[in-house]
Amino acid sequence: MRWLPDQYRKLWLGLGALVLLSPLGLILPAMLNGGSAWGEWTADELRQTLGFAPEQLQKLESLWTALLPDYTLPGVEGAWQTGLSYILSGALGVGLVAAICLGLGRWLASGREEGGQDVSGGD
């Protein structure tokens, strides 16, 4: 990874480790009979667990449909395949966010280099 500046190497290694550890979000709840992964409850799951579900959650639940529902690729079944698709969807998400941030950063920096205003708020 010589192409990567030293100050970012640890960041990318840490992000890579988190992506590789992401199947724990599937494995641990299944082992501990915990239901869904933390924070990914539907309104019905909250209603069963807590006895109620916030009204706005029920209204907004169908607003967004995930590109990769349940973090799996279509047609994937089985424990190790599900874990692998979980890792791939995590890597895809990290890659998309990184690409957007890098593109936005370059776009903002190009405005400064061409004599544009300094948008950083500094003097």
Tell me what you see in this structure.
Helix 1 packs antiparallel against helix 5. The two termini are 35 Å apart. The protein is built from five helices and no strands. The longest helix has 35 residues. The radius of gyration is 20 Å and the shape is extended. The protein is mainly α. Helix content is 59%, strand content 0%.
The structural class is: mainly alpha
| Percent helix | 55-70%
Taking all Cα atoms into account, the compactness measure Rg is: 20 Å
Q: Whole-number average pLDDT?
A: 78
Beta-strand content estimate:
under 5%
Concise structural overview:
59% of the residues lie in helices and 0% in strands. With 123 residues, it is an all-alpha fold.
Please describe the structure with a list of short key phrases separated by commas or semicolons.
single chain; 123 residues; mainly alpha
